[in-house]
Amino acid sequence: MKEYAVERIEKKRVINGITEYFLKWKGYPRSKNTWEPIDNLFCKDLVAEFEKSEKNKAQSNNNRRKIVSSEGDSKAVIRLKKLANEKNKKFGFDRGLEALKIIGATDSSGVLMFLMSWKNSDKLELVPATLANLMCPQIVIDFYEERLTWAPHIGNVKIKNSRRLAKKENAY
């Protein structure tokens, strides 16, 4: 019987109550990785190391969730705070300014940004739309309402066609 050496354990799954580990074999490419039931493994130290690593990851993720939920912030606000922290940029709201009007909108690297004017300030500033939605929702609504246009009623087309049909029917 040939024995193979396990380089590392990459994943774990449970199917029909049987625990299996996804193994990377020493001397073989990743394409040869296989799922093996725990009963077939003779590398209990690697299994213990993998389980400890997974437990630490779970605890770390749990701690992050607790921090987020204790602050009571929404996901959008958290992302914006991270964005602001990464770039060390404070938006007008962070400087205590009050929004006056949205002048325009643009797509900046896949993020919708509003060009905003501020009360008691001549400066304009690009602000993420998600932040504006939270901080000044009525101003965002006003911006969209100013640009709202109504399409002609599609029902008119049907009326025109029905008039043509009526004329043809009367012609006979």
From TrEMBL:
Residues 4-62, 97-155 form the Chromo domain. InterPro entries: Chromo-like_dom_sf, Chromo/chromo_shadow_dom, Chromo_dom_subgr, Chromo_domain, Chromo_shadow_dom, Chromodomain_CS, Heterochromatin_chromo-domain. Pfam families: Chromo, Chromo_shadow. GO terms for cellular component: heterochromatin; nucleus. It comes from the Eukaryota. The keyword Repeat applies. Keywords: Nucleus, Repeat. The keyword NADP does not apply. It is found in: Nucleus. This is Chromobox protein homolog 1-like. It comes from Drosophila albomicans (Fruit fly).
